[in-house]
Amino acid sequence: MTWTGQPTPATAVYLGYGKISDGKSIKVDVPESTTITAGKLYLLDGFLGVAMESVTTGEGETSEVTLSIENAEYETDQINTGEAFTKGADVYWDSNNKRLTTAATALYAGQVTSAKDSNNVIWFKLAPRVITNADALASFLRNSVQAGLLAGAPTAASTHADGDAYDFNVDIEPGLVKVNNVLKEFAAQANFDIAHDAASPLSAAKPDIIYTVVAAEANGVVTMVPVAGAAAAADAAAAPTTAAITAAVGHANWIRLFNTRLHRTADDACTQTYDNSVRPSY
Fold first, then answer.
1. Digit-coded pLDDT (tens) for 79-91
2. What is the DSSP letter of 180?
3. What is the CA radius of gyration of the chain?
4. pLDDT per residue as tens digits for the range 247-267
5. Distance between CA atoms of 36 and 79, rounded to whole angstroms?
6. Is residue 27 domain-shared with residue 56, that is, in the same domain?
7. Is the pLDDT of residue 23 over 90?
């Protein structure tokens, strides 16, 4: 320090911008009409962490909450229970369902340190930061539609009859897909079988149904698998959920290719539309 009358001239330089904390936690904003529960995982202000306190905001009201973002081991049951979560598995943040998943998303969360137990609880090591660029690209390259495989109208139109036989099909362009790092090239497919049976799922009361076609990998082999949603009232049908697809496929190594909606227009007629936007995209 300097003082008045010191024998040797000196210049005092006051350094600012010093250390604020150890960076193990951070205060983040809580949006309006939001309930935060202590001990749960949240993605807020771009930070993924565990809430250290409970906060509830009303309409037009915001607040703050402290998130623990330390690169440490955490215990949680905030997971997609339909997935295995084996020790060593990479985990990601599912922003839509606000839980961890082993299906790659743009938000890498960490790695399982203790596998899922009978109570659907895991331990995992939280990544030091939420990675949205390099890891998103790596995830995309591991699980992606790399070319083609667009769905369109079948060569032979899909058929339906109330309480009678039906045959739902779709034409698929040739293309290349990678699932769980296994590359598969598919030739063009005409009249790919979505579903057929003796009794149509469509009726006057429930005229809509959505099927999701996924590419699934098992033992190094990638195949296309159609999974049915539930028939519902007009414009009310929903695509099968992640858990439903995992249950139908038998494991979590799959990615969506497209959805197709069948709509009953008469007791012996239906129309069909296609949604190719559901495939992985980062």
1. 999 999 999 888 9
2. T
3. 26
4. 999 988 899 999 999 999 999
5. 17
6. yes
7. no
Separation CA 160–CA 154 (nearest Å) = 14
**For residues 85 and 114, is the Cβ–Cβ distance under 8 A?**
no
From the list 118, 110, 102, the residue with the least C-alpha distance to 253 is: 102
220 sits in the region (left: phi over 0; alpha: psi -120 to 50; else beta) called left
Q: Total domain count for the chain?
A: 3
Q: Same structural domain for residues 269 and 174?
A: yes
Identity of residue 59:
E
Residues 121 and 213 in one domain: no
Q: SS3 of 251, please?
A: coil
pLDDT digits 0-9 by tens, 32-89: 889 999 999 999 988 999 999 999 998 889 999 999 999 999 999 999 999 999 998 8
**Cα 232 from Cα 201, distance rounded (Å):** 9
Q: What is d(CA 92, CA 127) in angstroms, rounded to the nearest whole number?
A: 10
- Give the Cα separation of 268 and 93 in Å (integer): 44
Spatial distance between the Cα atoms of 71 and 131, rounded to a whole number of angstroms: 13
Residue 36 lies in a domain: yes
Q: Say which amino acid occupies 81.
A: T
Provide the whole-model pTM: 0.54
- What's the token pair of residue 225? 């698998």
**Position of tokens 């006051």?**
14
C-beta separation of 124 from 234 below 8 A: no
Same domain, 182 and 221: yes
